[in-house]
Amino acid sequence: MEHSLHLTVDGQEHTLVVDSRTTLLDALRDRLGVMSAKKGCDHGQCGACTVLVDGRRLNSCLALALTHDGAEVMTADGLAPEGELSTLHRAFLAHDAFQCGYCTPGQVCSAAGMLAEAADNAPSVVTEDLEGPVELSEEEIRERMSGNLCRCGAYVNIVAAVRRAAEESR
Predict the structure, then answer these.
(1) Other C-beta atoms lying within 10 Å of the C-beta of residue 13
(2) pTM for this structure?
(3) Name one GO molecular function term (predicted).
(4) Per-residue confidence of the chain (170 residues) as pLDDT tens digits?
(5) Quick one: 89 and 161 in the same domain?
(6) Are both 60 and 94 inside the same structural domain?
(7) Domains contained in the chain, number
(8) Which domain holds residue 32?
C-alpha cells in the first residue's frame, strides 16, 4: 500500500508517495536522488547510511520512511550548503580522515550529531563526570563514533578530525 510522505531534506521540501515498507534510506536515494547517505550493510551495523533526523543521528536503512513524515533530514551534503564546507568537513580534509570515502558522509553526520549530544552534556558509556560538561577525550569520541565503521581503518584520523572540529566549534 502506498502513502504520501513529506520530508525536508537538506533544506528542500519534498512530497513523495512510497510503499509502507520503504526505508528512509531508499526514499532518499531511490526516490529523491540524494546519494550522500550510502547503503553499506543494509542492516544498521556499519553506519554508512547515518543521517540527522530532526537533529538526531539515525541509521536510515533501519527506519521506515513513513515513520518520519514531516521530519527534517540532514545529510552530509546538507551540512555544506551551497558548497561551503562545514567545520567538520574541513577537519576531515585537514586530517585525511577518509581513505576510499565511502563511509565519510555517514561519519560526518554521526560526528555532527555526536558533537551536538556532547554540547548538550548527554553522557556516553565512558563519560566520567556525569554532572559537568562532557570532555571529548579520544576515548569519548571513539565510544560515541563506534556505530560507524571504516573499512579502510582511518579511525585515528577520524578521531583527530572530530576533536579538531569540537575545538573549533567552542
Answers:
(1) 9
(2) 0.95
(3) metal ion binding
(4) 899 999 999 999 999 999 999 999 999 999 999 999 999 999 999 999 999 999 999 999 999 999 999 999 999 999 998 889 999 999 999 999 988 999 999 999 999 999 999 999 999 999 998 888 999 999 999 999 999 999 999 999 999 999 999 999 87
(5) yes
(6) no
(7) 2
(8) 2-74
Cα separation, 130 vs 132, whole angstroms: 6
For residues 29 and 127, what is the distance between their CA atoms, to the nearest angstrom?
36
Q: Work out the number of other CB atoms within 10 angstroms of the CB of residue 158.
A: 27
Location of C-alpha cell 578530525: 161
CATH at 102:
1.10.150.120
Say if residue 93 is in the same domain as residue 153: yes
**Rounded Cα distance, 15 and 18, in Å:** 10
Name residue, grid cell 531534506: 9
The distance between the two most distant Cα atoms of the chain, rounded to a whole number of Å, is 49
> Buried (b) or exposed (e) across 135-147, using 16+ Cβ within 10 A?
ebeeebbbebbeb
Rg of the chain in Å (alpha carbons): 16
Whether residue 105 sits in one domain with residue 153: yes
